[in-house]
Amino acid sequence: MKKFILCLSFCSLVLMGCTSTKDEKKPVILITGGTEAIIVGDTYELPSVFVTDDIDQDIKVNISGDTINPLVAGVYTIYYDAEDKAGNQADQKSYTLTVYDYQTDMDILNGSFETGDLTGWQIESINGQSDAFHADYVIDESNRKDGTYFFDGSETDDDKIGALRSSTFRLGGNGWISFRLGGGNDIETLFLGIYRASDDTLVTKFANSNPQKYGGNEFLVGYKCDLLQIEGMVLGESYYIKIVDQKLENWAIIKIDDIKTFHVIEPISLTYETVQGQS
Ligand SMILES: [Ca+2]
Ligand SMILES: [Ca+2]
Ligand SMILES: [Ca+2]
Fold it and tell me: Cα(146) to centroid of ligand 3, in Å?
């Protein structure tokens, strides 16, 4: 009798073993890295692709989708599939590379003031005055700047007014803009405006909305905005930037640096905080 019981236990163990070796779990595909976006002609890296499975080793990855041509602008997507020996299919993964066209007129001239003067910029008058802006106010003092130089309106007095107009740019890339502003915060009288070139209409504007971020108005603060989320801003259309100072007292100056109107990936949040434009 004892032998019979032992045999039953052994047989059921074998049966349980058989059941647990049946492969019902699908493999898992992991992709890491890979360049997100480039300019036509740039190099890029494909992502690393790994497959893991509960039972099978060395599962092959099947690759399908687009053939990337970094010399032709476009959105390229590659798909990754895998199957274990039992026929379980992994969830499909994909990788997308966007190749952007770039022309020099997609960015403004001297947006970081690295010429050390106002090359590429035009001083304009407001009510016959333009004293808020002068090439001498492009300085190389210490600040939270980009490169060596930035424009510092505090080189003159609060009660000076005027405007500074950039070269025209054609909106391209992923549509993001980034810039650094310091000085006063007043969206009505002291701002960075974006104007449509065809009719000189103010489309959107930004103030130094977080002037205390680094402990005082004197420090430049980085901002970024997805212009394609703003009504009236479309890829391919031409715009220009105008820095306007109509403010007369109480931190009535503006500091500017690092204006970039062409990006292929979103500017990093560590340096540039996201802001919404105001109309
Ligand atoms: Ca499996
Ligand atoms: Ca600069
Ligand atoms: Ca002023």
Answer: 23
